[in-house]
Amino acid sequence: MTPLLRILRPLLALVTLLPFLAPAAVPAASPPRSVVVVATIASPISPVTADYLSSVIERAEGDNAALLVVELDTPGGLDTAMRQMVQAIIKARVPVGVYVSPSGARAASAGVLITLAADVAAMAPGTNIGAAHPVSIGGGPMDNTMSRKVENDAAAYARSLAESKGRNAGWAESAVRESASLTEKQALERNVVDLVAPDLDELLAQADGREVRKGDARVTLRTKGAQVTRVPMGLRHRVLSALADPNIAYILMMIGVYGIFFELSNPGAVFPGVVGGISLILGFYALQTLSANYAGFLLILLAIILFILEIKITSYGALTIGGIVALVLGSVMLFRASGDPFLRVSWTVLITMAVVSAAFFGGVVSLAVRSQLRKPVSGSEGMIGAEGEALLDFDGKGKVRVLGELWDARSDLPVRKGDKVVVTAREGMTLIVAPGKGQ
Question: What is the Cα–Cα distance from 128 to 124, expressed in whole angstroms?
């Protein structure tokens, strides 16, 4: 064998074995499926909804979601909470879409500005958007100057949001100044929203491939066929949202009033005081959440003080009447919100609680007055008017039997044994008597 063949033989053998030594081909990995996070807000805008939205945005950012969709159905709400939600949407590191749904839903008042702030604004068929004119909440009526300031501020804010998202800034301003409203078709035609979709899947299909701006960057949405993750309100947010209802807040305040009243009327009962204290604290939280009118709150507080004083001072109902008047006036003033019935106590609840309170405290006062006027049945006063029987003949001092007991007696008129006598007074252990009727 020549030296050349000796060199080439190992090389030829290696080439022959290479196909068997090569690793099996690995199929290319499919790209990870995008995630869409969905939050639902179907209530008035309040600090609770603002906190809920912030928590969902944190969740979406943690999941690196392709889009956060906020399903919105709201009659409006507090300006401060609305601005918190708008700022959270703008600052979010993931695209945020607002979807006014389901059919029959609305984005009114504060909901208009939240929708305008979204990176993707969409509506379902049969929905509407508009009527964003600001109203006075909790602070009484505004004068003309203050009303113009608030209106101009809200109009400029709405225009700014619309312009920043490339939407109809003129309509946004008219929604504030003129309470203009649009259906979903009109909103799409007038460039107020970007999409009209019958359901979430269709919305994600239409949004796929859209380019939105987040800060200085542009993001292309990849939402078609995305994995949908819903994040409902947790127990904490649901409880706080229920407390933000003015009717619930008012009922809690009244339960607190009754509980404290019972505890002070019957010291040591404990249970009424515990229930009343907890109810009052929850009621105070709701007052803060709803920006209640402090004049109304102070009147209710005055009513509580008057009811408590009625226990300590015999006013024959004067303090209770004053308390009922203060309670009714404070209740009417507590959540005054022109044009926004969801931010004030309903008349049904108000009248019911006022009647119940008047009947309850009126009954308590009636019992107290009757007890004050009732004839004493014990002690020295309880003997007066009692009937007895003379045990001996006497003209001046003698012995009588009254209420089954023997007493020394004195009479200014002669009394014979067996005669009926009536007690007219008592001096120590001696009864002053007079002959009974018919004697």
Answer: 9
Residue pointed to by tokens 């209420």? 403
- In single-letter form, the type of residue at position 40 comes to T
3-16 confidence digits (pLDDT tens): 544 554 655 554 45
Is 3.40.50.300 the CATH number for 35-236?
A: no
Q: How far is CA 124 from CA 30, 225, 328, in A?
A: 33, 19, 43
For residue 421, give the 3-state DSSP assignment. strand
Q: Where are the beta strands (DSSP E) in 119-259?
A: 120-123, 128-130, 181-183, 195-196, 211-214, 217-220, 227-230
Eight-state DSSP code of residue 217? E
What is the side-by-side order of every strand in the sheet holding 106-108? 106-108, 128-130, 181-183
Which CATH number is correct for 379-435, 3.30.1330.40, 2.160.20.80, 3.40.50.2300, 2.40.50.140?
2.40.50.140
Q: Which two tokens stand for residue 224?
A: 């078609």
Q: What is the pTM of this model?
A: 0.67
Domain boundaries, given as residue ranges, for the chain = 35-236, 245-373, 379-435
As given in the structure block, the two tokens for residue 430 are: 């001696």
- List, for residues 87-112, the tens digit of each pLDDT value: 999 999 999 999 999 999 999 989 99
Amino acid at position 284, single letter: F
**Tokens at residue 132, please?**
């964003």
- Alpha-carbon torsion (242, 243, 249, 252), positive or negative: positive
